């Protein structure tokens, strides 16, 4: 049962008492009046037509009598409140079984090095449960122990429990929160009595993969002595484990498997699982392979893809590219898997499988692991369960003491937060490793949830092949030096059992080495002519120049039709009062009756993409449905029952998918997920919005390692759009800046686009341009906050229908160009503050030009605007950010070069900004106003006292 009676007389029941409750339930099913009235009421809640009758309690008394006649000791019987008998010895056996299931893993033989002795576990002793050695030959009911018979001696029961729970596999599953999953695990583990039985063919295939794993490392060690490769020595069982998961998943009908992992064993996986040609790897070691363009990356960061044959047919494998930030690949991979599942309409997750490989220190130490686990069952991010494999070296670089590496017993304890089962397994028992792999895959297939394989192994070398590990782990490496390899141990076992001969074993080694010498593929299941329908063709999106001009207009009647359709809600749907007002006002805007504000233009862009351009649109982030600043309202809620309606998902029966999800409170994992998604689906607009722009600081590793550099390192193009609220409005240091300067510092080689749009039409065309061009580059949008409803920041339907994204917006008021002596160049919301004061004060000698795209900088367009004014005496770049932040330090060299053709202007170019500051903005509202006034006055070339009030 999953809960206790709601009666104050009943205290909280420990897990040890679960079987006692089940015995009461058996009594209840046979005779309801035989149990206490409170228990009767409790059990009646769970009665259903599908309940199966349990064995009558009288069978237990017959068994008790049989035990007594066997003269195995007197069984004391005590009475309960109703005078019914409960056998304390039987209760002790039931509690002992429960203890093994719950705590047996703590006595399992997991460490190949046997450096840490297993602690004595008190509740796995007979005495703890009121039993003794005199009870060992007593026959007891086996209760729910899945051993194929209803009774057994205590000795046999313990022997089975020891094999199942205390051998080379230690299983943690009692923290799982559903009885169905627990019972499934128990049946899976206990049915074979702890005996792992593979036929000869299977055992030889395991040896063959171990031979490959060890053979590659030995070959590389001889050929490239001392060169970094982050070899797999000590963890060779990883290769047969992954091979088993792939082949078994293929048998289930899985068509794509995506693998993410850091350095250790990566080259081995590439060659021995994904089928990379060893000759190509050797060329990389020899330095013969140079990047065709961009920087390229080291060989143990690169990704790869291939097709292999499985029992269920051909399947596509993809190894994700991965930087040195280790666990950051986990959410990237999950995003890629989710995109593949959407493409296949795979609602169960059975057609695309994520496999994530971790290091023990990183798994325990990096917060993105927790974030990714927390995402695993949410609407926006679930992928139907992930198989996690921890290559547990029992040391992180040089840190091996548990009190230094973590605060938990196991490195995998973080997985318990989502009730994921954990399979600890000794890496020197490859059959146990393969069995654990089968269990993990089967569990994932059955329940669609995450599961973890904790592969206890070791590093035969140091952190890398140039490192000397005995300097920091002398005792560990004294043991390792004497320890035979996993393959040697397994081969000896098979020879001893007559499965193969020494000659055949040697032949395995020789054949593999000769294949490497010849530079041949060493994966037998590799498909050399892969089915291209199993993956996406990105060629149409490659090789294009990043041009400014692109037609992004939409027929005005279509825009009006979208507006009317988005204003419709299901019959009887009652909206909250303010939301209803937004819907009505937006309808007027989108049908041309009123000027469009930001939200009206943005939602029209989405509508046109999913309908007219057949582009998938996905928007995630904290509070994106409504929008942090209440401007979007793509999700409408019925005040009567709380149900949600998304008009953009119901434009037509043939439209593309529109999805908006409010994310969990994470930046790093969520942004990484969306990056992975965007790099997998080309015909999509994938948008992540930060609640406030500065929140992106928590995801800086994603920006640095993937978004800004993924194309130059790995040739991975990505069309991800980031909306980052940015603007100085007196909200303090934490909610003013999206750190524009950091993005601009990362800009090079046309790697991404950074824009500061100031009108609804501009955001409409920028979003459409991002999707309709056959170019995929990240788009960083410094989104305004006050401009969402600013009286001057409006656009017309005609500007949406006939315009395009303008990288530079010229002076909009009518001026005599010859009269202009001061040119203000700016970007973002500061433009409207400057414009209002310029108009109010009648400063007809001042022109204001907006740079709407900061990177790639539209030099020709900006130069053309400067050239309009032949009598310039001053050119000023005006920004709200402090001088050491914002765009100035990026723009200054370009601006000086641009105005070099204008001799007078070149001498007078200068910035106007807040004073250089260690923080982005002041926390004082009064000081903010003073700074803003000084900024506007400085931009216009007047005194603060002259500003209009």
UniProtKB/TrEMBL annotation:
Class of the enzyme per the UniProt entry, highest EC level: oxidoreductase
Coiled-coil spans in chain: none
Gene3D superfamilies: 3.40.50.12470, 3.40.50.970, Multifunctional 2-oxoglutarate metabolism enzyme, C-terminal domain, TPP helical domain
Cofactor field: thiamine diphosphate
Matches recorded under InterPro entries: 2-oxogl_dehyd_N (IPR032106), 2oxoglutarate_DH_E1 (IPR011603), DH_E1 (IPR001017), KGD_C_sf (IPR042179), ODO-1/KGD_C (IPR031717), THDP-binding (IPR029061), Transketolase-like_Pyr-bd (IPR005475)
Record SMART domains: Transket_pyr
EC number: 1.2.4.2
CDD domains listed in its UniProt record: TPP_E1_OGDC_like
UniProt keyword terms in alphabetical order: Oxidoreductase, Thiamine pyrophosphate
Transketolase-like pyrimidine-binding domain span: 596-790
Purpose: E1 component of the 2-oxoglutarate dehydrogenase (OGDH) complex which catalyzes the decarboxylation of 2-oxoglutarate, the first step in the conversion of 2-oxoglutarate to succinyl-CoA and CO(2).
Family assignment from sequence similarity: Belongs to the alpha-ketoglutarate dehydrogenase family.
Protein's UniProt name: oxoglutarate dehydrogenase (succinyl-transferring)
Protein species of origin: Psychrobacter aestuarii
């Amino acid at each position: 049962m999953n809960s206790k009676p709601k009666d104050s007389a009943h205290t909280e029941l420990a897990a040890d008492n679960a079987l006692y409750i089940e015995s009461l339930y058996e009594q209840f099913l046979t005779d309801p009046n035989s149990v206490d009235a409170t228990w009767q009421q409790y059990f009646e809640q769970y009665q259903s037509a599908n309940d199966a009758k349990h064995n009558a309690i009288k069978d237990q008394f017959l068994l008790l009598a049989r035990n007594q006649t066997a003269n195995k000791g007197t069984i004391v019987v005590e009475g309960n409140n109703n005078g019914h008998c409960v056998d304390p010895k039987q209760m002790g056996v039931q509690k002992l079984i429960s203890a093994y299931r719950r705590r047996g893993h703590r006595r399992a033989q997991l460490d190949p090095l046997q450096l840490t002795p297993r602690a004595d576990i008190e509740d796995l002793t007979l005495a703890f449960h009121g039993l003794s050695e005199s009870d060992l030959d007593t026959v007891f009911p086996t209760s729910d122990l899945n051993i194929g018979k209803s009774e057994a001696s205590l000795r046999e029961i313990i022997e089975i429990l020891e094999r199942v729970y205390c051998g080379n596999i230690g299983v943690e599953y009692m923290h799982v929160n559903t009885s169905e999953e627990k019972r499934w695990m128990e049946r899976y583990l206990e049915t074979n009595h702890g005996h792992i039985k593979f036929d000869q063919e299977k055992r030889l295939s395991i040896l063959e993969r171990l031979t490959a794993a060890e053979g590659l490392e030995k070959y590389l060690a001889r050929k490239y002595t001392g060169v970094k490769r982050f070899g797999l020595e000590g963890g060779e069982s990883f290769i047969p484990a992954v091979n088993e998961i792939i082949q078994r998943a293929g048998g289930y009908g899985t068509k794509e498997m995506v693998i993410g992992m850091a350095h250790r064993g990566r080259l081995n996986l590439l060659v021995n699982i994904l089928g990379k040609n060893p000759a190509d790897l050797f060329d990389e070691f020899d330095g013969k392979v140079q990047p065709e363009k961009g920087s390229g990356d080291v060989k143990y960061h690169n990704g790869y893809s291939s097709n292999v044959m499985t029992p269920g047919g051909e399947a596509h494998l993809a190894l994700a590219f991965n930087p040195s930030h280790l666990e950051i690949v986990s959410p990237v991979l999950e995003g890629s898997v989710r995109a593949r599942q959407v493409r296949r309409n795979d609602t169960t997750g059975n057609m695309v499988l994520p496999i994530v490989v971790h290091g023990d220190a990183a798994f325990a130490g990096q917060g993105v692991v927790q974030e990714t686990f927390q995402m695993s069952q949410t609407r926006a991010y679930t992928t139907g369960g992930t198989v996690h494999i921890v290559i547990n070296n029992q040391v992180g670089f040089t840190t091996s003491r548990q009190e230094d590496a973590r605060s938990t017993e196991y490195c995998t304890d973080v997985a318990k937060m989502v009730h994921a089962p954990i399979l600890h397994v000794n890496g020197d028992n490859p059959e146990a490793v393969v069995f654990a792999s089968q269990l993990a895959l089967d569990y994932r297939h059955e329940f669609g949830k995450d599961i973890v394989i904790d592969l206890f192994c070791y590093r035969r070398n140091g952190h890398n092949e140039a490192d000397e590990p005995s300097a920091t782990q002398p005792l560990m490496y004294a043991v390792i030096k004497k320890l035979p390899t996993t393959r040697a141990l397994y081969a000896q076992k098979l020879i001893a059992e007559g499965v193969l001969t020494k000659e055949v074993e040697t032949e395995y080694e020789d054949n593999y080495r000769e294949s490497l010498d010849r530079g041949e593929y060493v994966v037998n299941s590799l498909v050399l002519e892969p089915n291209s329908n199993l993956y996406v063709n990105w060629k149409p999106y490659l090789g294009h120049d990043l041009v400014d001009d692109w037609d992004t207009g939409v027929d005005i009647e279509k825009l009006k039709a979208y507006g009317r359709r988005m204003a419709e809600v299901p019959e009887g749907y009652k909206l909250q009062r303010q939301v209803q007002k937004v819907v009505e006002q937006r309808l007027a805007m989108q049908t041309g009756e009123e000027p469009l504000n930001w939200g009206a233009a943005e939602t029209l862009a989405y509508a046109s993409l999913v309908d007219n351009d057949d582009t998938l649109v996905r928007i995630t982030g904290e509070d994106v449905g409504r929008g942090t600043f209440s401007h979007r309202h793509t999700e409408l809620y019925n005040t009567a029952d709380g149900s949600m309606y998304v008009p953009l998902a119901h434009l037509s029966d043939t439209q593309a998918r529109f999805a908006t999800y409010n994310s969990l409170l994470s930046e790093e994992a969520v942004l990484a997920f969306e990056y992975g998604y965007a790099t997998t689906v080309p015909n999509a607009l994938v948008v992540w919005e930060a609640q406030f722009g500065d929140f992106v600081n928590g995801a800086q590793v994603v920006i640095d390692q993937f978004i800004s550099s993924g194309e130059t390192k790995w040739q991975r193009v990505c069309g991800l759009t980031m909306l980052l609220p940015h603007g100085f409005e007196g909200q303090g240091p934490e909610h003013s800046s999206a750190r524009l300067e950091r993005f601009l510092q990362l800009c090079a080689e046309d790697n991404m686009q950074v824009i500061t749009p100031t009108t609804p039409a501009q955001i409409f065309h920028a979003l459409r341009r991002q999707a309709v061009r056959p170019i995929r580059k990240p788009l960083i949008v410094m989104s305004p906050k006050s401009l969402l409803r600013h009286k001057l920041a409006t656009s017309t339907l005609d500007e949406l229908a006939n315009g395009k994204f303008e990288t530079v917006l010229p002076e909009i008021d009518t001026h005599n160009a010859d009269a202009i002596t001061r040119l203000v160049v700016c970007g973002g919301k500061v433009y409207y503050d400057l414009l209002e004061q310029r108009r109010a004060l009648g400063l007809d000698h001042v022109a204001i030009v907006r740079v709407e795209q900061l990177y790639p900088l539209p030099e020709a367009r900006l130069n053309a605007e400067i050239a309009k004014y032949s009598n310039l005496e001053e050119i000023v770049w005006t920004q709200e950010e402090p001088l050491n932040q914002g765009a100035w330090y990026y723009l200054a060299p370009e601006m000086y070069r641009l105005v070099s053709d204008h001799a007078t202007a070149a001498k007078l170019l200068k910035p106007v900004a807040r004073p250089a500051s260690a923080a982005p903005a002041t926390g004082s509202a009064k000081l903010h106003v003073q700074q803003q006034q000084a900024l506007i006055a400085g931009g216009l070339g007047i005194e603060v006292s002259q500003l209009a009030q």
